[in-house]
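[User] I have long wanted to understand how a fold can be written as tokens. Those tokens are not coordinates but codes from a learned vocabulary of shapes. Could you go through the record with me and say what the backbone is doing? Thank you; the sequence and its tokens follow:
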Amino acid sequence: MEATAAKTLLGRTLFYDPLLSADNTISCASCHSPYNAFAHTDHKLSHGIRDSIGTRNAPALFNLAWQPKLMWDGASHHLDMQALAPITHPGEMAESIENILKKLVSSNTYPPLFQDAYGNDSITSQRILKALTQFQLTLVSSNAKYDRVKLNKDTFTSQEISGYKLYQANCKLCHAEPLFSTYSFKNNGLAPDTNNYDIGRYNVTNDPKDSFFFKIPSLRNLSYTYPYMHDGRYRKLREVLNHYTSIITSNNNLSLELKNGISLTTNDKADLIAFLLTLNDIDFIFNTDNTFPRETLLPQE
């Protein structure tokens, strides 16, 4: 097997293996399902070992190569290192790299995979993290109807054209084409949850100007990445649009793009949603190259 393909398979196997958690029950895929564009939909906030509940909604994982900072608050700026955060977090996977190394070395599965990926079976923390990165970099979403239209392989309906114009008039400054995000950080006027008081990027920078700033998510694959916002408070796209048209909470750090609000009629919202649905990439969602690696994690007959 080609070294790059072997490294991707190793990373994919690690991504789906609960062995990376302290009690061997939680994998990366537990919060990042391939059928949800590597987000999750069954609860608002991420769940970890021993039924612990996190403080944020697990973000979708795709097109990561174009994202200069990772996580909702940009706490990580290097994909190789990002996995350490959930692996070692006491409320997520609660494991140490040292223990993971012991587990992998003593397993029957991993020495041959490391041999194929790296040319020898030495298992190191750097190789683990590099392999996880290699797999995640293959998660590219670029074949939605929108993409086919741009390549002159498909056409928008009249309603989708209307929605596209509404997107360009109201959304593109923060959700810029073709990634449909600038991946910068903004305060979008969400009222703080008094039970889960998350001040966002301020926790990273300690700059008051960053209070309640969160990373702008991509608009791609929205049918699969609900619930929406950093705390998963909205389950429907119409709820999100209602927030921007009538629920925005004014504050000193509110994004300049939202200072005057957004005006959309009921029909406008329907048209805009029609366009947003053209950003769903079904080929990506159901790509078996990204799903559970039966060839490595299931016993072979």
